[in-house]
From TrEMBL:
Broad class of enzyme this protein falls into: hydrolase
EC annotation from Swiss-Prot or TrEMBL: 3.2.2.-
Protein's name in the database: Putative 3-methyladenine DNA glycosylase
HAMAP family linked to this entry: 3MGH
Pfam families: Pur_DNA_glyco (PF02245)
Entries under InterPro entries matching the protein: Formyl_transferase-like_C_sf, MPG, MPG_sf
GO biological process, one term: base-excision repair
Organism field: Natribacillus halophilus
Family: Belongs to the DNA glycosylase MPG family.
Length: 210
DNA sequence: CATCGGATGTTCT
DNA sequence: GAACATCCGATGT
């Protein structure tokens, strides 16, 4: 497994969002390793994207990390409770990034279970196991990724990074993004990427009507 | 399985 | 004071 280079994150945001499907998110802390395979992402493309925190070039204390170098983590709190993690893309002063929306648990299941449900993995119901990491707030909680510790974190470090995975067999599908109904025309952009038919994707796409 | 509403607190107007 | 890139439990089918 090879850690993804900074050059990977400097590519166009839509390309990074798609290429991240199948890669592995890895956190190492206190001798413990947590690994998840990325199965769902969303692109947020700065000034021109009404759904992005940086729409119109808006620069605040919260989103400052998005204006920095590619390959860093932008972590923010949503609805007062949930911590969500993004990868900053492109380059300085291009406030774009990719939200990690869901992963498949690969290693560190025991600590994920403790953080999510305060009980050991073998005590979890099948529903709880499915819901360990199938959403942006859920994977943030399962990995213990908080804004205080990880916002602005360099993903080239050993403690939190993304590595190559065996993504050859994965078929990537797209859809509109989730949870951005108030964002005008931007809500229709097909900037959500996910592994087709994967059990840990946060929502199933609606059945085709036509 | 689908839908609905409350939780919770930070951010920005 | 309102909005918010969400989650969970309750309720009805």
């Amino acid at each position: 497994m090879q850690k993804l280079s900074r050059a990977f994150f400097q590519q166009p945001t839509l390309k990074v969002a798609e290429a991240l499907i199948g890669k592995q998110l890895i956190k190492q802390h206190d001798g413990e390793t947590i690994v998840g395979k990325i199965v769902e992402t969303e692109a947020y493309i700065g000034p021109e994207d009404r759904a992005a925190h940086t729409y119109g070039g808006r620069r605040t204390k919260r989103n400052e990390t998005m204006f920095g170098e590619a390959g860093h983590a932008y972590v923010y709190i949503i609805y007062g409770i949930h911590h969500c993690i993004n990868c900053v893309t492109v380059g300085p002063n291009a406030p774009e990034g990719v939200l990690l929306r869901a992963v498949e648990p690969i290693a560190g299941l025991e600590s994920m279970a403790q953080r999510r449900f305060q009980r050991s993995y073998e005590m979890l119901t099948t529903a709880q196991r499915r819901q360990l990491t199938n959403g942006p707030g859920k994977l943030g909680q399962a990995f213990g990724i908080t804004r205080d510790k990880y916002n602005g974190h360099d993903l080239q470090s050993e403690s939190l990074y993304i590595s190559d995975g065996d993504d050859a067999a994965i078929s990537v599908a797209t859809s509109p993004r989730v949870g951005i109904d108030a964002s005008g025309e931007a809500k229709h952009y097909p900037w959500r990427f996910f592994a087709k038919d994967h059990a840990y994707v946060s929502k199933r796409p609606k059945a085709k009507a036509d």
